[in-house]
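Project channel, design review

CF: Before we commit to the Didymodactylos carnosus constructs, I'd like one complete example in the thread so the newer folks can see what an input/output pair looks like. Taking Tetratricopeptide repeat protein.
RD: sounds good, go ahead.
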Amino acid sequence: MYPLSKSIKNSLTVFRSESALIQCQCTQPEPLDFPLIFYRGESHLPSQEFQYMQNNVGGLVSTNAFCSTSKSKDVAMIYAGGGEGKDSEEFKVVLFEITVHKTQYKSVTFVDIEQCVISNQSVCGSEQEILFTIGSVFRIDGVERDEDLKVWKICMTATDETFPQLNEQIRLVKLRYENEKNSNLLFGRYLIDNGHYAKAEAYFRLMLQIDESPYVFDYLGNLYMCITNWQEAQKKYERALQMKTDPRDLAVTYVSLGNYYRAIQQYDKASECYMKALKYWNKEKDQINIAITQLNLISIHSKCANDYSVEEDIDSCLKIHDLLEQQIQEPRLYVEIIYCQNLLGERYSTKVNYEKAEEFYLAAFEITKQFLSIGNSYQIRCIRTLSNLYQKVDENNMRALSFCNEELKIHENRLPENHLSIAHLLMLRAELVTSVDDRFTLYERALSIIQCQDYIEYQTMANCFLAIGDCYNKKDIYNKSVKYYRKAYDIQKKIYPPDHVALLSTNNLIDSAEKDNIDTQ
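CF: and here is what came back for Tetratricopeptide repeat protein:
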């Protein structure tokens, strides 16, 4: 996907049919000249995908994520390497040329970022971005080499033809969002769920200008939790709480506040919020939300309960797991089941029953691979939990390192080279190697990926700065370690309360490195 446009400040014009998955406030577009032609450049299209397209001219392909394109061929060529990219055995340099004919216009769903209007003022996106929705279908018209541009050109036509499995995917997505109170928030929620955080933030900030709904504050809070900007998340949840009166709505925000306090390790406050939510869910007799909130409480038992019992937690989790599995209505509660299985793995690991822990961790991991897109945060967490388990089982870390290397290779082959999940896996691999130089190289590469995102994942960036600072510290290059510790501290100040232990710890690292730097001069 292209980096998200930083200039989105207004509403999005959504071209849609009756079956469109996304709805938002929009203006009527100006008359269009058909056919419409959009471009998408890729410098690292996996050879396997390229071969499939070459062998299936006349066939159909569909997207399992938002597909970002541009009205400008020049912009697309930047992402295809600007004419400097080179093919390899694993990847091809490709320019997609996508045509939308007038006959298909009303049945193809896409977003024109440029045509956004608020108060009769237009704001143009610098990349002239066109965003096709998840599940868009294209017919492959031809694959040919363009020697002038030094790329493979894949010509496609947007179509309303579909696959049976795509119809099923669309049906499940509709079910997933059918209870959304405000249909205008669907687009932003969809963006959050698929990791398009910069676009989602721009969209929800626009919605606040149109309607200061507590649900917008909830979603902004969720967005900030995703990027670990916890202080901002708390502000948005507190604002939503002030505006709500409905018990179910209050319960949702109390759960979110509990998640915030859990993230910053204030477990007693997290427990208070979860208990308030549980009181509301019990009144509503909402068995699923009662179960999920109980899982949240179980996740912090060992941190704040004096009468903590591993056996009781396991029994409770197993009952909740059965309840979640028995929910046959769609969409299935895969994320909640993953959460429950990981908690079971964690509890069995605490009992040093590593075989049983691995069973549940692997079950969760398999669900992420089967039902969620590659690179999703749940999958990365599963990889980390399995790696941590293998470290406990194998003292020399070889099993953990082998597993991490395998997953890193899979993600590098199937995702863009600067996908954030690759940075997470590079950092995980760095934790497993013994050479300081190797660690440093991995952290530096991870940092370059983190910094090229159009949003900041605050905790990840801070942790990477800390790790690089540690590497310099071990190399006795104390002035550099101080520099990176301070970078981490500056980020942590934005996301933690002033008296948080993380700030104290990093400040101690800075003081120690500064002292060592003076002593060595």
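RD: helpful, thanks. The CA atoms of residues 339 and 498 lie 31 Å apart.
CF: Residues 13-167 form a domain with the Toxin ADP-ribosyltransferase; Chain A, domain 1 fold (CATH 3.90.176).
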